Amino acid sequence: MKTVAITFVMFLASCVAVPLKMDGQPAAAAAAKAEDVMINLAHKRQDDNNNNNYYRGRMTYYNVGLGACGDDDSGLGNTHNIVAISSSLMPAVGGGDMCGKKISIKGSNGKQVTATIRDKCPSCPEGGIDVSEKVFKEIVGDLGVGKTEVTWTIL
């Protein structure tokens, strides 16, 4: 119960702190700076074998279109390796420096594919990704499966 109370107090403190100025910056800039810190902390997950950014999560597929990176990928889902990563790993506005980065995705069956970050996935938990149909088929083989567990790294 003590842990719950401490967590609740920390949550309340963070709610109160957001509207205040941070380093003399307006509230919006302070919130953006706090988000950058959280993103940097999220990227600290590392694979014991090679010290690269390493994630594990659920992979689903979607119909690609106008992405958070500003490019319209409509009609490219069956021909291009496109990925949308969890919103928790991308800035609130646009895709920031994550846009255009390559990731290596590995399925539980051992199949591996490289894809380009072109979008963000608001419904994906941290570590979860949404991919173009081409990527999903290359790893799983069948769209009917709908979702699968994968690991992935930012190259």
UniProtKB/TrEMBL annotation:
User: From which lineage does this chain's organism come?
Assistant: Eukaryota, Fungi, Dikarya, Ascomycota, Pezizomycotina
Mind telling me what this protein is named? Answer: RlpA-like double-psi beta-barrel-protein domain-containing protein-containing protein
The yes or no answer to whether the keyword Signal is present is yes
Q: Which PROSITE patterns match?
A: PROKAR_LIPOPROTEIN
Q: Which domain of life is it from?
A: Eukaryota
Record's InterPro entries? Expansin_CellWall (IPR051477), RlpA-like_sf (IPR036908)
Q: Which Gene3D superfamilies match?
A: RlpA-like domain (2.40.40.10)
Identify the keywords attached in UniProt to this record, alphabetized: Signal
Q: Does the keyword Signal apply?
A: yes
Q: Which organism is it from?
A: Cladorrhinum samala
The region annotated as signal peptide is 1-17
